[in-house]
Amino acid sequence: MYPFTYTKATDTREALDAGQRGGRYIAGGTTLVDLMRETVEHPGTLVDIGGLPLHEVRVTERGGLRIGALVTMAEAATHPKVRIAYPVVCQALELSASAQLRNMATIGGNIMQRTRCTYFRDVTAACNKREPGSGCAALEGFNRTHAILGTSDSCVATHPSDVAVAFAALEARVHLLGPDGERTVPFADFLLKPGSTPNREQALRQGELITAVEIPAHARPLASGYLKVRDRQSYEFALTSAAVALHIRRGVIRQAKVAAGGVGTVPWKLPAVEQAVIGERPSDRLWAEAADHAADGAHPLRHNRFKVELLKRTVERQLRIVGDIA
After folding, report:
1. Which Pfam families did the record assign (predicted)?
2. Cβ atoms 53, 25 nearer than 8 A
3. β-pairing, 65-68 with 173-178?
4. Which of 226, 111, 228, 253 lies closest to 169, judged by CA?
5. Residue 46: phi, psi to the nearest 5?
6. Cα–Cα distance between 157 and 132 in angstroms, integer?
7. In the β-sheet with 223-229, what is the strand arrangement from edge to edge?
8. Contact residues for 182 (Cβ-Cβ < 8 A; gap 6+)
9. Contact at 8 Å (CB) between 298 and 308?
């Protein structure tokens, strides 16, 4: 681990000042500390923001839900407002990491976490995300767990967050605070596809701080859930996953929100699947036909071609599960 300095911010202004000077924000530290230990990351200054007033979960004036950036994964997963309104968020959180990590990791940190690509974490391997211009060892290496959607010639690493898939499906917004004031970024624009600059992963500006993630109000009743397919049943990242929310009224699907994880360089929204079910009546045939669009535009690699069919089956199964609940 490289030497670094540590400071604890006592208020938001102090945090922003330190961030503007190049300090890296830390709260739970469950990802950043690991990367520092492995010498993948070596920030000069850590700015502890754990004491800032960003721990609230509340219903917004328009009926949405705002989750403070410093709410832990465990707190969000068990919060009654979240559990009642958006089971998909709770399930995504409960299927993430271990109980110990969920007690420490925060919502803001979770969506900021970096890929689990083994080449990214191996400082001897070529990785454009870690060292721009060095190449991507995963393209010709063992790439079974890598992305099939949103990839580029520069990077094929997946985004590891489960709850980010739920946020993408629900079309959440990320609230930011920086030297120039507050702004809000749609979740779909917050996490960036790699393109030719895979080292730039979020739409954050220098010194900006995540203050909350807001889920907008959706039509009610809204049934939702999260399905995660992985190599083992605990403490494992997704091979594929599906976040689904359906509003069904009088036997007709009026609203559908669907996103996939484990297959994209960012949580992957599936608008073609959504459009295929809206206005239709639930049926096994509908779920299968809609899910057939889940892998549209996929570019599988040598070792992960199985993800194309697995993604379709995962989405189909979760559409059926949520449809039965609704």
Report:
1. CO_deh_flav_C, FAD_binding_5
2. no
3. unpaired
4. 226
5. -105, 135
6. 14
7. 223-229, 240-249, 252-261, 268-269
8. 175, 176, 211
9. yes
Overall residue count recorded for the chain in this entry: 326
Mean pLDDT across 311-323: 98
Backbone angles phi, psi at 36, to 5 degrees: -65, -40
Whether the Cβ atoms of residue 10 and residue 33 lie closer than 8 Å to each other: no
d(CA 273, CA 246): 12
Going along the chain from its start, the domains and CATH numbers come out as 1-52 (3.30.43.10), 57-112+162-215 (3.30.465.10), 223-325 (3.30.390.50)
User: Which residues lie below 8 Å from residue 263, measured CB to CB, with a gap of 6+?
Assistant: 147, 148, 149, 158, 240, 295, 298, 307, 311
Does residue 229 carry a pLDDT above 90?
yes
What separation in angstroms does the CA of 40 have from each of 21, 35, 256, 267, 292? 21, 5, 39, 23, 39
> Residue 63: which region, alpha, beta or left (left: phi > 0; alpha: psi -120 to 50)?
left
CB distance 12 to 34 below 8 Å: no
Of the candidates 160, 170, 192, the one whose C-alpha atom is nearest the C-alpha of residue 262 is 160
Average pLDDT over residues 127-143: 98
Task: Judge contact between 19 and 207, C-beta under 8 A.
Answer: yes
